[in-house]
Amino acid sequence: MKIDGVPYRTIWVNDDQWSVSVIDQTKLPHEFQTLRLASADDAACAIKDMVVRGAPLIGATAAYGLCMALREDASDASLDDAYTMLAATRPTAINLKWALDAMRNAVKPLGPNARVAAAYERAAKICDDDVEICRRIGEHGFKIFDAIAKSKPGKTVNVLTHCNAGWLACVDWGTALAPIYMAHDAGLPVHVWVDETRPRNQGASLTAFELGRHGVPHTIIPDNAGGHLMQHGQVDLCIVGTDRTTASGDVANKIGTYLKALAAHDNGVPFYVALPYTTIDWTLDDGVAGIPIEQRSAFEVTHMTGRTDAGEIVTVGISAPGSAAANYGFDVTPARLVTALITERGVTPATRDGLLTLYPEQKNG
Ligand code: MRU
Fold first, then answer.
1. pTM check: above 0.90
2. 76 part of the active site
3. What are phi and psi of 120, to 5 degrees?
4. CATH topology of domain 2-129
5. Smallest CA separation from ligand 1 atom 15, residue
6. Does 342 sit in the ligand 1 pocket, CB within 6 Å?
7. How confident is the model at residue 343 (pLDDT cuts 50, 70, 90)?
């Protein structure tokens, strides 16, 4: 995707051929800054502090974190320590573990001298694959938009999304936003309702930023407005991303997703979830019982950061002093509320059979 005409991915290797840079997402939408990561510790901090976020990008950043750990020390002990540290940064997105496992499998059988080059090669492939996977998700999801557009000729297709599952959450394109970009680029009249996504406002600050830069018509709404819009026929479909999808189709995504799925179900609005295969946790069936839900600092709930009209970035308290606050990062939407999953291999019901039809290689465990 382009920022002011310059094509960007969300993570890239610098000219020194070993450190990486990322877009600092904590500064968006007010400032576009990049940040150099030069160690596994830097990568871990960037993930924890949400300089980078979104399930696929967390995995890609951890992969390069492992590369930088091996560059300093290519021993088994260094590999294991870096794996453990990076895996502990955020608990819900399974892409993190997937990427670290892929890296470890690629380098562990090699002697220490061969590990660094192999690690950088594997990390680059993780990034390139993610771009291609998201592009394919976009192509499959596009057909859904096209069908809706054909069913209401001349009228706008209104889609609601939650959090940020766009190119900023991946390496490029995005998962849930890829079909939206493709529909828009193909000339379909798309308009996006963007949930603000409290407490960190990934919708208002990141999704709106992305869509605005690409020229996609959109409107930011408070998180609790979606049900009202659905009741009044103003949402044709919902589409969200996911941080972990179980083998039976339960979907963990940013807190508040479940409530949107309930409202969609009550109003007969289709609710789609877009994901790459790296987000599927084949070891779990029951997402509510089995998916670990990240809890973050209460400070993110009791305070907000923004820019004053004078241009100053300030953080202010917004709650009654002394009141406790809880900050659950994700919730689980049961498969029964999901109309279909959109993956790089196609669109399928959110069921074990549906997923196995797309991924038959998982049939034997
Ligand atoms: O806490 P975040 O910002 O990392 O959460 C991101 C989401 O919930 C996204 O919807 C999810 O990672 C899917 S990303 C393509």
1. yes
2. no
3. -60, -35
4. Four Helix Bundle (Hemerythrin (Met), subunit A) (1.20.120)
5. 165
6. no
7. very high
